[in-house]
Write a structure and sequence with these properties.
337 residues; mainly alpha; 2 domains; two-stranded parallel ribbon; 1% strand
């Protein structure tokens, strides 16, 4: 069976994803820093600036590479890579290394560091580690997770407008992931703030035109907004909102949401984002379908769209480092939605 025909996570695919991530989360270069320099003393190697997350081309990709490994470690029984994952976490997720990451975050010039995408993924990693008992990893990471939760609490009240791009600045994606963390750790203040912000930003939206994709999207601005509200609204409220937001979904309109993106050059890091768009759309369509009524004709259409996008993206998680250092994360989201 080819990878493009797989619709659920199996051990072979999990092992493939784990090996990909183990191969890049400690790969030091190439690496793209997100840093404002305050002086010559700030020019340091990534492994010094970021004692844990200094691989995978950039900080946020390294963080969600760790999330991928943590998720597979918990979800897949007898995973051959499991011992290597545990060994990596025992070595890297330590109090001193977490303190090093926190020190970078506390620099006066780091206020906008990784906002909001990296913030959200760090909280997703923390939430996943909290689900795993018998290890010190979650406890060790908590100071860093709390620092990012605090950043959300400070930022969201002053964020007058959402960001509706299909890349790292998308605010619906960040709210969706951060809400998962808030629920896992019972941070009611953060959860309520996320819910209020999502309602303020998105609840009035209707008749989405879905002018997408743009040339370097890895998220669907339309579908990730729906996925965000799916997580925070009661089921009946979400179904009503969705019927207004995409009123012609059952007729496969807007057509752009039902057509996988074409990727012309997978060695181009920005164009390669479009493989991620196909996978993240599969994730969103599956999740949305699961919240629609069984007799809603949009449900069947959403599931078909998910399968089509998953097939378009899954076979490209490996092959070129520009995609290989991150695409398996979105494949796992889609396969486990």
């Amino acid at each position: 069976m080819s990878s493009s025909s797989v619709s659920e996570l199996n051990q072979a695919l999990a092992e493939k994803f784990a090996r990909l991530a183990l191969g890049h989360v400690r790969k030091p270069y190439p690496y793209k820093l997100d840093q404002v320099l305050a002086g010559d003393e700030d020019v340091l190697p990534p492994r010094v600036l970021h004692p844990i997350f200094h691989g995978s081309f950039d900080w946020h990709s390294c963080v969600h590479g760790y999330w991928l490994l943590a998720s597979l470690y918990r979800q897949v029984a007898d995973l051959p890579a499991g011992r290597e994952i545990a060994s990596l976490f025992n070595e890297m997720l330590t109090p001193d290394k977490v303190a090093g990451e926190l020190a970078f975050l506390q620099r006066p010039t780091s206020g906008g560091f990784e906002r909001p995408y990296g913030w959200a993924w760090l909280l997703m990693l923390a939430a996943e580690l909290e689900r795993q008992k018998g290890h010190p990893w979650a406890a060790n990471l908590r100071p860093l997770a709390q620092a990012f939760a605090d950043r959300f609490k400070a930022f969201l009240p002053k964020a007058t407008y959402p960001v509706r791009t299909g890349t790292h600045y998308n605010t619906a994606f960040a709210l969706a992931l951060a809400h998962d963390y808030a629920a896992q750790v019972d941070d009611h203040e953060l959860a309520q703030l996320i819910e209020a912000t999502a309602r303020r930003w998105y609840l009035a939206d209707a008749g989405a035109a879905a002018w997408e994709p743009s040339g370097d999207d890895f998220l669907s601005p339309t579908l990730i907004e729906a996925e965000c509200l799916r997580r925070i609204l009661p089921s009946a409220d979400f179904r009503l909102w969705f019927s207004r937001f995409l009123p012609e979904a059952a007729q496969r309109r807007p057509a752009s949401l039902f057509t996988p993106a074409t990727v012309s050059d997978r060695s181009d890091g920005k164009i390669a984002h479009l493989d991620g768009l196909n996978l993240s759309r599969a994730w969103c369509w599956r999740s949305i379908a699961g919240s629609l009524a069984l007799n809603d004709p949009a449900r069947r259409v959403a599931l078909a769209a998910a399968d089509k996008h998953l097939a378009a993206g899954l076979e490209h998680v490996a092959g070129d480092y520009m995609g290989e250092h991150w695409l398996a994360t979105y494949a796992l989201l889609a396969l486990t939605a």
